[in-house]
Design a protein that fits this description.
It is a single chain. Helices cover 71% and strands 0% of the residues. By secondary structure, it is mainly α. Helix 2 packs antiparallel against helix 3.
Length: 62
């Protein structure tokens, strides 16, 4: 599956995707701290979907 990813994903050895995830988390925390508390629940839902996808991939369900 990783071999099918575009070249720009492999460009920095996967660090680009980690940086992107960090920026999403940082933006969610900053917006939640500045009057957008519902965004915490949105980010938790996003994290839950990521956890479900990881479980499905790792358990060979997909």
């Amino acid at each position: 599956m990783l071999g099918q990813m575009p070249w720009f994903v492999h460009m920095l050895g996967g660090k680009l995707t980690l940086a992107t995830e960090f920026m999403v988390l940082l933006a969610a925390m900053m917006l939640a701290a500045n009057g957008w508390p519902m965004l915490v629940w949105v980010y938790l839902g996003y994290s839950g979907l990521n956890a479900l996808a990881a479980w499905l991939i790792l358990s060979d369900q997909i």
